[in-house]
Amino acid sequence: MTAEGWLALGEIVLCGFAIWRHRSAHRGIFPLLPGLLMAHLVLFGLPSALFRDQFLGLDSNLGLLGAIVVPEAISPEALRKTALVIFAGMLALVAGYELPIAPTLMAPLPSLRVTWQRNPTAGALALMGLGLGAAIVERSSHPKIVEGILDALSFVGLWSMGTLWMMNWRGRIRGPARLAMWAMTAASIGFEIIQGALWRPVLDAILLLAVYVRARGRLPRVALAMALPAFLTLAAAKIGFRALMPQEESRTASPSEKLDIYLQSLAAIYDDPANLDLGETLLTRMSETWVLATVVERSPRFVPYWGGATYASAGWSLVPRFLAPGKPEETSGQQFPHRYGIIRAEDQQTSTNFAMLIEMYANFGPAGVIVGMTLLGLACRALELVLADSAINDASFSVAAPLSVSLLLIEQPFHGAFGAFMQHAPFLLVTLALCGTCRFALIPVDLAAAVADRTMNRQEAC
C-alpha cells in the first residue's frame, strides 16, 4: 500500500473515532466534528489515495476543464506531502476538540436555551416561504446592498425546513400544513439544483439527515443508499449544464430556462451513460486535493507564503453590507487561482474555491495547518458547549443544527464560513424572537449532567 493509502486509512480511523466518541458520550447535539472530518476525508483525503496515478499523470485533455487549468502532473513528493498535511490537519482538528481548553474557558459562560412559544408550524411555514422568495430574488438582479439580507433570509428558510421536518417526524404536522411543507421543500431544493451548484442541496440533505436521526433514532438506510448515485448523477449533469448555459455576461438565464437546460443535461446522461464521467467528476470537480497539491508544490519556492494577508480582511465579513455599503469586495476567489496559475492570467470571470485548509497552508505552510485546525477544533467544542441544551431540547436542536451545518462548507475560506455564521446566528435569533415563534434564555447547563438526567428520566419512565 502506498503512503497516501496508509494516510487515508488513518483518516478513516479518525472519522470512526469521532463517531464513536459522539455516540459513547450520548451527545444529542449536532455531530459537528464527525461532519467536518467526513467532509475533509471526501474532499481532501480519499482522492490522493484513490486517484494517485491520475494525479501523477494528468494529461492536457483531462487537465483543461473550461477555464480551470489543472497541472499536467503532480510530483510524487508533492502528493505525498499533501497527503501528510491533510492527515496532520485532521489529527489536529480532533486534538483541538478533545483538549480540555474549551470546556475550561467556557465553564463560567451560559448556554443558550430555546423553547417554543407556541406551536411553531404556522410560523415556520411562513418563514420558509419568505426564505424561498429571498433565495429566488438572490439569484436574480438586485442591489448589492441587500445581498446580505437576502442570504440571511435564505438561512432562516433553512431553519424552517429543519423545524418543519422535525415536527413532521414527531407526528405533529398533518393535512394542508404537511402538503405545504413537502411542496416548499421540493421547490427549495429543486431551485437550488438548477442553479448549477450542489453545495446548498447537500447542506439541505445533511440537515434533514440530522433531524431524521434526532426524531426517529435511526439512520434512513434506504435513502442513504439512493443518495450517492443520485448525487453523482447530478454532479455529472452539472458539467453539461454549465457547458450549455448562455455565456453572455449581460444575460441572465431565467429559472425556467435553467430547468430546461438541466433536463437536457440529465437526458444526455440517460441516453448515453458514458456522459456520466465519474473520473472527471470525482477527480477534479469534487476534489480539493489537486488544488492543495499545487499550493504545496509551488510554495514557498515559487510563490511566497501570504503571511496572514487573507485573514486581514476577515473582520469585514462580520459586518452586513447594508450597514457598511462601501466595505471591500471579497476577491480571494480570483486572487488565489491567479497567484498559483490555476486559471489563466487573462481570465477575470472564473472564481475558484479557496478552502480553509488550503488557506491555512497558503498563509503559513504546514505549521499554519496544524495551528489553524487545532483552533478550529477548539471552536467546534466551544460552539457545542454554547448550544449544549440541544442535547435534550428539540427547539434548541432546531437552532443548533442549521448553524452547525453551515460550518461544514470547508470549501470556503475562513471569513466565508465563519463570517456567514456570525451574521446568520444573530439574524436568525432576532427573527424568531420578533415573530414570537421562540423564546430564548441563557442558562448554566452542564452537558454531562443534562444527559445523565435524560437517561434517568427514561429509566424511570420504563
Description:
The protein has 462 residues and is mainly α. It has 20 helices and four strands. The strands form two sheets. The chain has a two-stranded antiparallel sheet. Helix 1 (3-24) packs antiparallel against helix 2 and helix 5 (76-98) packs parallel to helix 17. The longest helix is centred in the middle third of the chain and has 24 residues, at 221-244. The protein has helices spanning 3-24, 32-50, 52-56, 60-63, 76-98, 101-106, 121-138, 147-169, 175-193, 199-216, 221-244, 255-271, 278-285, 289-298, 332-339, 356-364, 366-386, 394-406, 414-434, 447-461, and strands spanning 64-65, 68-69, 111-116, 438-443. It has one domain (3-461).
Offer a concise description of the structure.
By secondary structure, the protein is mainly alpha-helical. Helices cover 66% and strands 3% of the residues.
Counted up, domains total 1
Residue fraction in strands: under 5%
Major beta sheet summary: 2 strands, antiparallel
Point out poorly predicted stretches. Answer: 59-66, 448-462
**Oligomeric composition of the shown chains:** single chain
What is the rounded distance between the termini? 51 Å
What proportion of the residues is helical, as a percent range?
55-70%
Order of helices and strands: HHHHEEHHEHHHHHHHHHHHHHEH
Nearest-angstrom radius of gyration?
Answer: 22 Å
Number of helices: 20
Order of strands in the sheet with most strands = 1-2
Based on helices, strands and strand pairing, what is the structural class? Answer: mainly alpha
| Whole-number mean pLDDT | 82
| Molecular shape | globular
Record field, number of beta strands = 4
